[in-house]
Design a protein that fits this description.
The protein is built from six helices and nine strands. The protein is α+β, with helices and mostly antiparallel strands and about 220 residues long. The chain folds into two domains: about 160 residues, Pnp Oxidase, Chain A (Roll), CATH 2.30.110; about 40 residues, no CATH class. Strands 1, 2, 3, 4, 5, 6, 7, 8 and 9 form a nine-stranded antiparallel β-sheet that branches. A hairpin with a 5-residue loop joins strand 8 and strand 9. Helix 5 packs across helix 6. The two termini are about 25 Å apart.
């Protein structure tokens, strides 16, 4: 197979930093928070953008970008429509993967774990902080469903805007938060010559974390 020359020439040699076992925290979420703080300080555009990969009960995968909205010692939180394609897949197969790629820092974080809904109270609290248009949008969009035209969405927005006005807008029952509780986390730091540093945290039988170096 022939590949376009311009694609063959696209490459970057990573040289910014290294990643050593002696320098990382014993818990992967703590280590993530270290890198997260550095990403924030670096003024990366949307550092909370992450790829979420889900799969059907038969293993057919799909992936999309969602936004990280919370970090806890036991996991990573985002919000979505429970009736969307990803919501339906999560209901059928509650094991997912997340990927962060911070190219400005030449870093990647890959997370695998179990996913569950957070409490209604927590979802209500977050929903109330969203901009008015986003709250109306959560009611207006039958996410992932086929629609005939853009006008359908715009009519839904107009109808719900008239219904709720600018008063309190309740959270739709089909919308809320998820938490991904990791069982495996990999930290990737780009290095010269494609000899990248990869440190993997895996959960052992005693709920402790084992740190191992992976070949690039």
């Amino acid at each position: 197979m022939q590949y376009p020359t311009d694609l063959e020439s696209i490459r970057k040699d990573y040289r910014l930093q290294s990643l050593s076992e002696k320098d990382v925290d014993a818990h992967p979420v703590n280590q993530f928070e270290v890198w997260w703080a550095q990403a924030i300080e670096s003024n990366i555009d949307e550092p909370n953008a992450m790829t979420l990969a889900t799969a059907t009960s038969t293993g057919q995968p799909s992936a999309r970008i969602v936004l990280l909205k919370g970090i806890r010692n036991n996991g990573f939180i985002f919000f979505s429509n429970y009736q969307s394609r990803k919501g339906r897949q999560i209901a059928d197969n509650p094991f997912v993967s997340l990927v962060f790629f911070w190219k400005e820092l030449e870093r990647q974080v890959r997370i695998e774990g179990n996913i569950a809904r957070i409490s209604d109270k927590e979802s209500d609290e977050y929903f109330s902080t969203r901009p008015l248009e986003s709250r109306i949008g959560a009611w207006s969009s039958p996410q992932s469903e086929v629609i005939m035209s853009r006008e359908i969405l715009e009519k839904n927005v107009a109808d719900y805007s008239e219904k709720f006005g600018t008063q309190h807008i309740p959270r739709p029952p089909h919308w809320g938060g998820y938490i991904v509780t990791p069982v495996l986390v990999e930290f990737w730091q780009g290095r010269p010559g494609r000899l990248h540093d990869r440190l993997q945290y895996s959960l052992d039988a005693n709920a402790g974390w084992k740190i191992e170096r992976l070949a690039p």
